Automatic annotation (TrEMBL):
Residues 59-142 form the MCM AAA-lid domain. GO terms for molecular function: ATP binding; single-stranded DNA binding; single-stranded DNA helicase activity. This is Uncharacterized protein. PANTHER family: DNA HELICASE MCM8 (PTHR11630:SF47), DNA REPLICATION LICENSING FACTOR MCM FAMILY MEMBER (PTHR11630). The keyword Magnesium does not apply. Keywords: Nucleus. GO terms for biological process: DNA recombination. The lineage of its organism: Eukaryota, Ichthyosporea, Ichthyophonida, Sphaeroforma. Pfam families: MCM_lid, WHD_MCM8. It is found in: Nucleus. Residues 17-44 are annotated as: Disordered. Residues 18-29 have a biased composition (Low complexity). Belongs to the MCM family.
């Protein structure tokens, strides 16, 4: 109910938006349509041989000021659905007493990120792709902020150096596995992996097989690997 309420506050009707604004948003969406299947992290990387024309600082400040003053994006139903699904999944994976509860603050952050993504392109409607970019940013902030600890940086800290070193080693292996799976999924255009494929990939990149089950369970509880059926998982960072 809380998530419904928070989302509704940001989902005002767009029926009275001008046709010119709506048309501009659609054109922008079509222009980037071929980029939607590429992770944000990959899109932000400088391509080999790419010549970047930097925006003058003064012009950038004016652009940001204009966007803040005149652009007030609203969430589309598709964006709401993506944010709600991710938020609910995050809450469900943090129900144990060892983890700090996920609150509506995380949902508000996702909404603000999504709105900022649309505002940066002077668009009045937050699209599904804006929401997915915001979710990817949130995933990576939780991912890197905790070093992939079991509680994604929202739970208890280790108290001894030996325990911390062991946790850091596991975290590094999980991070390495997620990065490799994301790359494989993007190359093959298939985000699904059987348990046998996961074992094979772990062996290829040198992960400790004696903690394989623990690693898969942890990534599943954190939302990086989604269980899609009997012994089948989907990498969620693609």
């Amino acid at each position: 109910l809380l998530s419904e309420h928070v989302l509704s506050l940001h989902s005002r009707s767009c029926a009275d938006r001008s046709q010119s604004i709506a048309g501009g948003s659609q054109q922008s969406g079509h222009a980037d349509e071929d980029q939607t299947d590429i992770p944000l992290k990959q899109r932000l990387k400088k391509r080999s041989g790419e010549d970047i024309d930097h925006i003058p600082a003064a012009l950038l400040r004016k652009y940001v000021a204009y966007a803040r003053q005149f652009v007030e994006p609203t969430l589309s139903p598709e964006a709401c659905a993506e944010l709600k699904a991710f938020y609910i999944g995050l809450r469900e994976s943090h129900q144990s007493v060892e983890n700090t509860p996920i609150t509506t603050r995380q949902l508000e952050s996702l909404i603000r990120l999504s709105e900022a993504r649309a505002r940066s392109e002077l668009r009045e409607v937050v699209t599904k792709d804006d929401a997915l970019d915001a979710i990817e940013i949130m995933r990576h902030s939780l991912f890197d902020g905790a070093g992939m600890g079991d509680d994604i940086g929202l739970g208890m800290h280790q108290t001894t150096s030996s325990t911390s070193m062991a946790a850091a080693s596991k975290s590094a292996q999980r991070k390495k596995l997620v990065a490799h799976l994301t790359q494989v999924a993007h190359t093959a255009q298939n985000a699904l992996f059987t348990i046998q494929q996961l074992r094979s990939i772990c062996g290829e990149i040198g992960l400790s097989m004696h903690i394989f089950d623990e690693t898969i369970d942890a990534l599943n509880s954190q939302g990086f690997l989604l269980k899609k059926g009997a012994r089948v998982y989907e990498i969620a960072c693609m």
